[in-house]
UniProtKB/TrEMBL annotation:
One of its GO terms (cellular component) is TAT protein transport complex. The chain crosses the membrane at residues 12-31, 89-112, 124-146, 179-201, 213-228, 234-252. Part of the twin-arginine translocation (Tat) system that transports large folded proteins containing a characteristic twin-arginine motif in their signal peptide across membranes. The gene is tatC. It is a multi-pass membrane protein. This is Sec-independent protein translocase protein TatC.
Amino acid sequence: MSFLDHLEELRWLLVRSTIAILIGACVAFAFSEYIFNNIIFAPKRADFITYRFFCDLANKYDLDKSFCVTELPFSIQSRTMDGQFSTDIWTSITAGLILAFPFILFQVWKFIRPALYDTERKHAVGFIVSTSILFFLGVLFGYYLIMPLSLNFLGNYKISDVVENNIDLDSYLSLIKTTVISCGLVFEMPIIIFFLAKLGLVTAGFLRKYRKYAFVIILIIAAIVTPPDVVSQMIVTIPLVILYEVSILIAGRMNKTPKIEETNG
């Protein structure tokens, strides 16, 4: 294929992906009331499953009781005329992006397929399924763990009793979108390492060498978003550590690490 043919294929990839996102957005818009009441604003309620889980855990093992609350001390407000309407539209688009993610992956695979070997093309289904599963696991991880922990910490944080927490609707939704999508992308770490190792840019020895620094960063993130108790911090830390270790295994399979790099780990 010529360069212009590749551009044409890329254009149709973007067109088909956009259409898929819009279809997902229309579906989400049709169920927007349910999405807002039972998904987006659910972590704002004290009976959210994550708060109940941590509260039961704290009572059972005599840990920090910060999740045993009757309500989160902040209100959500919209201060612009079109605030709720535009929020509904953009939230539907974000939901459409999440729903269309497997289809977008399939389109990307079709675009790069001509550059792959026949043996690599056979793994198309495995690539799409594994990448989609990791993304959705990351979304669920962000929604059920990182998001409630962040809301509980930020909602209860006060510099003075004079200041009331009246949170703008855009700010609340921005936190949810950023957290959920970021976690979905973070959970793609094994897939990213797979391609970097295949290109020879990352080795298992390199990942082992800097493992301790990666663990420190993960622990710092967990300490920021969780209450000050070990159990909740470990619940956030363990999945991220597992992802990093899986990435090392993948890199090890994709390239042969020199002995000197192995000893540095």
